[in-house]
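Entry type: protein chain
Record version: 2
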Amino acid sequence: MSFGEPNNPYGPPPQQPPAPPNYGYPQQGPAQPGVPPQGYGYPQQPAYGAYPGANMMPQTMPGLMMTARVLLYIVAAVQVLGGVFAIFGAATLNDASNAGEDTFGSNGFSDMGHAGAGVILVVALLFLGLAGLSITLGVKFSRGGQGIRITTMIYGILGSLFGVLILIGAANANSSAALVWALLWIGFGGIMAAAMITPSGAAWFNRPRY
């Protein structure tokens, strides 16, 4: 019995021809221990982290900034009230001057009344303009930049100086009401200026906006 015959059922199985090579990407051999598998195609890019200093930027308005914003709105309300009352005062003084002219004719008192009414009207318009500035600064705290920060800082410093002038006048007139007003203006202006000078305030206005 010959094992070499191909039709012999008791012989060894015929040998298979070698597999043809695959075309395309080269085939890798078995992975070696400790060696990471190598991929083909574009290399994998590392995941990008946050930009440097991103976590250092404040995402919510700092507490001192929120306080300064509320004070701006309070100052605006006071300025609006002062402007409205001043307009009514100027109108009343002007009416009184007109009545004096009708009764006694044109004289020095009526002229002084008209001049005083004009001065009071200018002061009223100044108060209303400052109220508009206070409201604008408070609204711009959310999206404003360095211009809003610097303007608010100067505004607060000027408000404190105005309070100092009131304080000097209150001391000379021995007026307790004027003293309270002076301390309020000095405190409000100081808080506004301090909020803009602190590092948290500077970081808030320097934060990236999208």
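Comment: The longest helix spans residues 63-104.
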